[in-house]
Amino acid sequence: MEALINYFETIPSSHRSIILFGGLTVFLLLENASPLFRFKYNKWKHLGINLFFTFTTILVNFLMAFLLLKTSFWVESANVGLLQWISLPGIAFLIVGLLLLDLVGAYTIHYVEHHVKWMWQFHVIHHTDMHVDASTSNRHHPGESVFRFAFTLLAIIIVGAPFWLVMLYQAMSAFFGQFTHWNIKLPAWFNKALGWLFVTPDMHRVHHHYRQPYSDTNYGNIFSVWDRVFGTYQNADNSKLVYGVDTYHTHEETNDIWNLLKIPFVGYRKPIEYQEEEKL
Fold this sequence. Notes:
about 0% strand, globular, single chain, 14 helices, mainly alpha
């Protein structure tokens, strides 16, 4: 436990880059072995768009990183937050801290983005990807990256998370973001067993189905427990999924970076109402 704390207290930027880009490279290469969907598309153009938004996410986080550092140090020095107010042994401190960071800093903001119109206007860029793969994990509008960062700071304050725990959570979040968007066919038993605690590709893909109510389920980032607790868990046959979002479902709209950047500022599009409920 002490070695883990020491490592993430001083984790080099190069190691964080390896986790992000090394993991992405491995996931994308392995997708070719046994993909769930064999898309007919320009994979390099698709990757280029998603890498553009990956770099904008990195830029936003880099510019505001000092706030994360100061906030995590402040909660410890000022004795602020749940973890600072209760006494837990090392492993319990770790588990509870990760669960609560995931609840406040990921599940909650994700849920809010789907239910507040102006936030959805930014988040919808993530859902416009009609060829979901590991690179989709960082397809976020720069504006969304800002208010996701704000919720990360809020999570640190509420949880009372020290710096090492925040760094560990972010490393896990980068891994699971790529893993849960992974275009790979995994054994059903593996998804089911892992899915009792963690978000799996089979679970998160349902969230990327092009229409409601499926797109308004499975908000989890790392832990699946919060969707089960709050009743937002949904299972569906992954082979029947159609990726994207019905309000932006043309290649002209979803494969142009400039158009994607403009979407939050050109007016809200209401979800399409269907005559009958879809069953997957």
